[in-house]
Amino acid sequence: MSFGTSFGSSSFGGGGGGGGFGATNNGGSGGFSFGGGNTGGNTGGGGFGQPAANGGGFMQQSQPQQMQGNQGGNAAGGLPFGMVMSENNDYEIPRDQNSAQDSFSSVAWSPVQGSNLLIAGSWDGKVRCYEVQDNGHQFQAQLQASVDCGAPVLDVCFKHDGTGCFAATAGNMAKMWTFSSSGQQTAQDVGKHDAPIRAIRWIQESNLLATAGWDNKLRYWDLRSSQPVLDLQLPGRCDCMDIKFPYAVVATGGTEDERQVIIYNLQNNPRVPERVMNEQPPSNTTLANNRPAQTKPLKRQYRTVAIFPNGGGFAVASIEGRCSIQYFQSHRLKDNFAFKCHRDKNNKQIFSVNEIAIHQQFGTFATVGNDGMWNFWDKDSKQRLKAGQPVKMQTGDVVPIVACAFNTAGNLFAYAVSYDWSKGAQGCPNANVSTIMIHRTTENEIKPKTR
């Protein structure tokens, strides 16, 4: 069974003439087209950050601010721009009264080639969209607009055509923000869980939205219906998820038995996992070489997972300062391995790996962590390509990096600096240090090394 076939007596996508997952429905409005259809398109006729059909530009909340370094004056409300110090010569998006009032949770760049729109979800319940311009010498960053999702935002992703984005919220709702050239910005409910939604991904090939939550559910949504077209039970709460057709990878958490990695092949049978990694790895082994396919890639709670652009495998990382490279094909399972990262030189301090971002052109990847550092890695040569310097407050205290992403061109790397609440309320700094930094990447620091 595959995307494009029906499942038994009921169709994947609801009533009608037996339409399957991705198949065109022949009788009702509840079906959908595989790779077709146009759900959640443009509103107001204008592109986000581009002139609208009526000649008007997109709503602007603040004027562009040029950045030539990590300096800045005082922003509105007494919040200073330049609250963090970076030896990486990276650029800090200026703060003002419209900036995030709580920690960031996620960032994502527009998938449209040539677009440098950046969205950021925050625990203050808002998704903000910035337009970033770079001429190779100087940045301009402008907050285009924001939308209130009514509850803390735990994850964000773009629609494939860049006309809108989606947000997973702690209010149990999935939201869609269709970018508009009019003044009012609203977020539409497009999915629901019985607990906070931890991860959200748009699947272009089937025009479906995937959500995974702390209610142990993985759900797929047709945006034209209020009910999921597929509702799957997970072994535990979703800790992270990534989807790149035809694969979906969900890492779950909770008890030891609930902590698993589930791999789905969406072209075959989306209902049944292709592989479940649920066995504890041997305690005396540091690498994953020659382990059975069902062995857990890491021993501790998963924090982030990312599928490589060629579909050959994925990277998953955990709170124990480890990252694991896993391959989908059975003949490559012997190449699986894990490595230590985001630790001090003596391995006495271990920091959580908060996110993995894949470089779409080279297949190399970045990790960011609670040590306030970003690192670029080459999985094929098994070496680190570049290590960033820790991001610190003006007091000298290190600030965690909680999220990151490469833009489509691969020349800009955005990362969100925020308190991650790992030390509880007592560890929260007095000043709000939530900010977004941008690193201009070069080929010599991100291109794979020849072996």
TrEMBL record:
Region (Disordered) location: 34-79, 273-295
Recorded superkingdom: Eukaryota
Q: Which Pfam families match?
A: WD40
Which stretches does UniProt call biased (Low complexity)?
Answer: 59-69
Entry keyword Acyltransferase: no
SMART domains in alphabetical order? WD40 (SM00320)
From the UniProt record, list the WD repeat ranges: 190-231
Q: What is this protein called?
A: mRNA export factor
| Residue ranges, compositional bias (Gly residues) | 34-58, 70-79
Q: Where is the composition biased (Polar residues)?
A: 280-293
Which keywords has UniProt assigned to this entry? Answer: Repeat, WD repeat
Fetch the PROSITE patterns from UniProt: WD_REPEATS_2, WD_REPEATS_REGION
SUPFAM superfamilies attached here? WD40 repeat-like (SSF50978)
Q: Which organism is it from?
A: Hondaea fermentalgiana
